[in-house]
Amino acid sequence: MAKLGKRTTAARAAFDGKANVKVTEAVSLVKSAATAKFDETIEIAMVLGVDPRHADQMVRGTVTLPHGTGKTVRVAVFARGDKADEAKAAGADIVGAEDLMESIQGGTIDFDWCIATPDMMGIVGRLGKILGPRNLMPNPRVGTVTPDVKQAVKDAKGGQVQFRAEKAGVVHAGIGKASFSAEQLEENLKAFVDAVQKARPSGAKGTYMKKVNLTSTMGPGVSVDVASATGN
């Protein structure tokens, strides 16, 4: 068994005996454990009482975090003509049509967010098996298939986060950086939890939000009191 480093040992000791803590304490613990040489991402993971294999239990959506994610987001836009010009003017990093499709099919995916105008879905649809598993497939339900590419690019660059339940009913996302203040992280966390709460599908039965966990990129995780996270 590998020997744990001093940093990891100290972090685990600080978390020892901590479970289902209030949001304020969870944020404080995770921030204090984020001592890597880079600005660690603070991540939330939520276990939901859903089975995403059933269409009426799929959870997905977007939320604009009050303080952004702290991450530089690269945005790709499928558009032509005036819409392509709008996307470029709004700050999109990559804009294209068939050329962008071919680049993605060739294995080049150097973006974090993908937007498409409705008329481009004939092309984008061919990329479902590539973009879908990466949660990058444009979808009108989350506003990434839209004629208003200017606003969509602005939202993506401004800290909008997409979420989607995975097979085990887990939703996770980065909600900021360790360099954020505790107050900023708390507000981002509550905004994210609120968005997932509002996205509760019609087929969800029983307890919807089962567990909430907070961690940093390199640090241990701590479970958060669900009532504290939801404001109940």
UniProtKB/TrEMBL annotation:
Coiled coil: none annotated. GO terms for cellular component: cytosolic large ribosomal subunit. The keyword Repeat does not apply. SUPFAM superfamilies: Ribosomal protein L1 (SSF56808). Signal peptide: none annotated. One of its GO terms (biological process) is translation. It comes from the Bacteria. The keyword Hydrolase does not apply. GO terms for molecular function: rRNA binding; structural constituent of ribosome; tRNA binding. Keywords: Repressor, Ribonucleoprotein, Ribosomal protein, RNA-binding, rRNA-binding, Translation regulation, tRNA-binding. Part of the 50S ribosomal subunit. Protein L1 is also a translational repressor protein, it controls the translation of the L11 operon by binding to its mRNA. Belongs to the universal ribosomal protein uL1 family. This is Large ribosomal subunit protein uL1.
